[in-house]
Design a protein that fits this description.
Order of helices and strands of chain C: HEHEHEHEEHEHEHEHHEHEHHHEEEE
CATH superfamily of the largest domain in chain C: Response regulator
Chains: A mainly alpha (297), B mainly alpha (303), C alpha/beta (396)
Shape of chain C: globular
Low-confidence stretches of chain C: 4-11, 13-22
Oligomer: heterotrimer
Number of helices of chain A: 11
Helix content of chain A: over 70%
Largest sheet of chain A: 2 strands, antiparallel
Strand content of chain A: under 5%
Distance between the termini of chain A: 43 Å
Shape of chain A: globular
Helix content of chain C: 40-55%
Strand order of the largest sheet of chain C: 7-6-8-9-10-13-14
CATH architecture of the largest domain in chain C: 3-Layer(aba) Sandwich
Radius of gyration of chain A: 19 Å
Distance between the termini of chain C: 50 Å
Number of domains of chain C: 2
Mean pLDDT of chain A: 89
CATH class of the largest domain in chain C: Alpha Beta
CATH topology of the largest domain in chain C: Rossmann fold
Low-confidence stretches of chain A: none
Number of strands of chain C: 14
Order of helices and strands of chain A: HHHHEEHHHHHHH
Structural class of chain C: alpha/beta
Largest sheet of chain C: 7 strands, mixed
Strand content of chain C: 15-25%
Mean pLDDT of chain C: 91
Strand order of the largest sheet of chain A: 1-2
Chain lengths: 297, 303, 396
Amino acid sequence: MLSNPMFLAMTVLNGLSMAMVLFIIAAGLTLILGVLRIINFAHGAFFMLGGYVAWQVAEVWLDGVPGALWIGAVVSALVLGVLALVVERTMLKHLYGREEHYQLLFTFALVLLINDAVKVIWGTDILTISHPDSLRGAADLGVTFYPKYRLFLCAFGVVVAVGLWLLVEKTRWGRLTRAARMDREMLSALGVHVPTVYASVFVLGAGLAGMGGALAAADRSLFPGMDAEIIVQCFIIVIIGGLGSLWGAFLGAIMLGLLTSFGTIFFPQFELVLVYLLMIGILLVRPWGLLGREEAT
Amino acid sequence: MRVLLLAIAALAGFAALPFLFGDYGIFLGAEILIFILFALAFNLMLGHGGLVSFGHAAYFAIAAYALAILLTTYNWPLGLAFPGAVLMSTVAAVIIGYFCVRLTAIYFAMLTLAFSQLVWAIAFKWSDVTGGDEGFVGVAIPDWLTQPVSFYYVTLVVVAICSAMLWVIVHSAFGHTLRATRENPQRAEFLGIPVRKVRLVTFILSGTFTGVAGALFTLLNRAVFVEFAWWTKSAEVLIMSILGGVGSFFGPALGAAALILLDRQITEITEYWPTVLGIILLIVLFFLPDGLIGLFKKRKPDA
Amino acid sequence: MTNVMRFGAMIMGATIAGTASAQDSDPIKVGVLLPTTGGCATAGTRALEGHEAYVARLNENGGIDGRMVETLHRDSQCNPATATSAARDLVTKDGVDFLIGGVSSAEALAISEVARQTETVYMAGIPKTVQLTNEENIHPFVFRSADNTDSEGKSAAIIADRLGWDKVCTILLDYSYGHDLGTAFEEHLAELRPEAEIVTQVWPAANADDYGSFITELLSSDCQGVFSGIWSGRFPGFAKQAGAFGFFDRFEYVSAGVLGSTKFLENMGDEMPMGIWTNAVEVFYYPETEEHQEYLSAIEAQIGDTPDGFHATGYIAMQFIDEAIRAAGSTDSQAVSDALKGLTIQTYLGPLTMRAGSQQADRGTFWGKIGESDIEGYDVPIMTEIEYISADGLID
């Protein structure tokens, strides 16, 4: 099948589009992990909530309005950002000094609460958001035809990656977060209010997850328990790429996406196992990830 | 001394359960005992070793499956199958531990998670042997164990012995050494303690006792399900330990009992048990930093 | 009630429960193990409502021989370990007379194990796994009122044969449900249509939500029809992803997994591909029989709306238990078990018989082609050319 250029191109694009969706979500996770050093198990729940909020906007309140999905994605990002801010200011910040497992427990508690909130508000139905009209159907790329929405996701993922990179490399805020990643005590000694930096990273991470959830929801389904499935994939990407490394997450997502899309063709029986073997391999050989900073591991 | 009295009281309490609560008490008590052992074994690594493992479900599940398969598919007698099953968890802990102890902190945690998920994936796919997503039901347990009461007392004895062994380990010279590696690994290294080796031994001990718990669970349910290997099972035991208090020996045991009892009670009353459980976790996090056991004891310098 | 009081009540209840023999006016207790959280919650919450609708009507009409039915529900969370301990608690602590429920195969097998050990009759209303009642696992106290993967897969083969498929592809999820469906479909298609050939088979992971590579593989194949086991929970993502590739214009599509459920179609709306063949447990617009009307009014009274297919699963499971108790004249497990074997009840899909040998109801499903609605005031895709394919001749 893959000797046919059309299907080869499709397989590559399948991997890339899957990768970009995962990247948008995992980007937030890697930022939070890198700067706050918190394993945010609630990240999947943020993703899920983002999807449901977008549904509410795009399919209920603004049903039929052109661009409803984009508005929904922005609203999702905002809602998650505000939620993250409230959570961080009232509860999370008290846990920064404590050992990791306490922060972990906190994120578990968040998962439980968010899941029930979603159930109370939206019930247990299986919901779906339509592709926006402007991106319906497939585009003719010459060598193959490919769904427009997935192409959009590819492009948007790159946009997000570049945008985040600019944010982290070129802005003062970005410098502060990079410094906080390396040496939080020094940063504090220099007079920077470190908790504010933390809060902003948490908010950004959650907002990205929410937006990712909204955009992914247009290509997938919304159902109870969907958060548990995405979180493991996010961790894999972050580990492969390196904690805190954005381009690492980008690369990790692409590796995971391509491994999955080609893996299902060549090793259909073992694809599930392959992914975990890759994660183990990276951790054994280069634990700080492909593009992570080499640090004491 | 006080500890010994408390332990005897707890033992007596558990022994009396069947007479007080009948079959209900037996099954609930057995489940609590099994998770007490699981939590105590887990806390050897967390509370005493300072190692956060996300992969303990693997050792639980491996022994559980091994026992089911040895008893049912290969017709081994229990006397051979039980140690055999636990041995398989030990072997897994040796292999996985060897690789994991080379890392620390978050990387350690992630590697344990990765191995555990690998175990899950194998259990899921290898359905001819494990039953896959449908699980392995109808485990052939020996006749003398089919009576709930006899199974209960066997469990009680096994858990009591293992707990005692863990107590001895924790309070031995090895235990002190282990805690030194938790407090300050660098200093421990300078003092000549082979930190990596100590951690590996801890890993193996923890995995082995976890395996015992898993094997007992198979006998309790007469079934093994692939959910036993999914990462949320590791999260469960982590929550139990923190809930009870990782800084003390008995904390996790209390946490295990508390979580199971709470879970049963809450699910009876409301379908929104996740919210109730979430709030309880938050309360413990913010108001009971030493865990539930903090309610019973003043802060001691070291367990 | 404070926890201490609850504890005390529990002690008293437990001591009494072990020895009590039910008095004639004591309620009949039914333990219902249905997930209301997690991935199976969609089916679980609906089935619970259906069950409660039946019980409400039953109690209104005087209960069973003067005894009211009391429902004790526990969230099994789609987790067999939870289902096991909850089922055990219901029997040992709450003293239920019967167990109903389970959604996933693992849950069903877990509950069945408890049923076997405690000798309590268990009625599985949704789980389709053939393992539940096969030679290895069957015992006197497990019964299934749902259809199973054999009848579902074979019914799909009947449709495929009618559509004249000679080259067939399959897309089935890589776990027991998908594999069992596939086996049943293949076997029956080979019987009905020996010239048919299955040219490509793809197996997405059970929890996959990105189907790109599988769609690509099918597109590169030369089959005319695709048999699918992508059930309702996973279908919206697949429908959108495949639809964008023009998948449903290229292939004919027959899907198991009850995509014809009314609530599912209401939520899918325009996203639902037209012209695909699928099944449903129940649809309010067919058939127009008295039993169906009775069912619809019971559901309306309970939830104030038309039912979704899963409501019927809860309703019928309880109906079997109800009529078996009446037939047996007692709630004793052995008596009810004997009464269930061969019992026929009248339902919205006509007479339904619980087979004595396999302890499985001869339950089929409704199959139809998704098309435009012709029902006034209901602008949602419906199943057209609808028919009920019975399980007679398709299962043992």
